[in-house]
Amino acid sequence: MRTKLSIAALIATTAVAAPAFAQSQEQSFNGSHAEVIAGWDRVNDKSSYDASKDGVTYGGNIGYDIQRGSTVFGVEGEVTGSTISDRSSNVLTAGDRLRVKAGRDLYVGGRLGFLAGPRTLIYAKAGYTNAQFITDYDSPATATAPALSFRQRDNYDGWRLGAGAEFKLTDKVFAKAEYRYSNYGSQTNGVDPERHQIVTGLGVRF
Q1: Distance in angstroms (rounded) separating the CA atoms of residues 162 and 2
Q2: How far apart are CA 134 and CA 4, in angstroms?
Q3: Contact call for residues 53 and 45 (beta carbons, < 8 A)
Q4: Which residues are CB-neighbours of 200 under 8 A, at least 6 positions away?
Q5: What is the pLDDT of residue 19?
Q6: Is 107 in contact with 60 (CB distance < 8 Å)?
Q7: Which of 45, 62, 68, 150 is most buried, taking the most CB atoms under 10 A from its CB?
Q8: What separation in angstroms does the CA of 17 have from each of 1, 3, 4, 52, 118?
Q9: Which residues of 111-143 are buried (b: 16+ CB within 10 A; e: fewer)?
């Protein structure tokens, strides 16, 4: 009798635990997450002579996901910097120097994903981006003009589209790979920038 009761208790415990385990697996992409990202960055000015510069983007991302079955809905925000910098000399006068550098880039948007496996999420994303570009100019003093030096910060509003894959390394730790395209439209100063990026990330879910 005791053996039968023990077996019945074990079956009952397993029946209760199994749905909870299955639910934890199904809900594995739920909740908040934070990550560090880095990757390839290219800024292209389509308006003038199709000038482009390559560099490295780096920064952080935070977000929140809700999973319903095999579908994941999420919102996220991101702050990144870039190593992109373009230097020129003798632009307006002999001996002057001009540098245009990519500054901080802010992003907020949403994503929609589908499970491609128990630990793999494929997703697309879209949202708003605001990129800053910093211009430094210096010119030496001449017989007719004093030395000149100034810094200008330009903020460009735009939109971003992207797609990627997220892989769970453990229940809490994940890695991702992502491509995204950003477009900032025609600006009043004649600049028409766009941006291509391929990034990888390492994050935690909590």
Answers
A1: 60
A2: 77
A3: no
A4: 37, 38, 39, 175, 176, 177, 178
A5: 42
A6: no
A7: 45
A8: 24, 21, 20, 57, 19
A9: bebebeeebebebebebebebbbeeebebeeee
- What is the pTM assigned to this prediction? 0.79
Kindly give, in sequence order, each residue whose CB lies less than 8 Å from that of residue 162, ignoring residues fewer than 6 positions away: 124, 125, 126, 178, 179, 180, 181
Q: Which two tokens stand for residue 106?
A: 């802010």
Identify the sign of the CA torsion 48, 49, 52, 53: negative
Candidates 2.40.50.140, 2.40.160.20, 3.30.1050.10, 1.20.1070.10; CATH matching 29-205: 2.40.160.20
| Residue reference for tokens 């997450």 | 33
Both tokens of residue 118?
Answer: 């128990």
Each residue's pLDDT tens digit, 151-186: 888 899 999 999 999 999 999 999 999 999 999 987
Sign of the CA dihedral with 9 first, then 11, 12, and 16 last:
positive
The two structure tokens encoding residue 121: 């999420």
CB 155 within 8 A of CB 128: no
Whether 157 and 139 have beta carbons less than 8 Å apart is answered as no
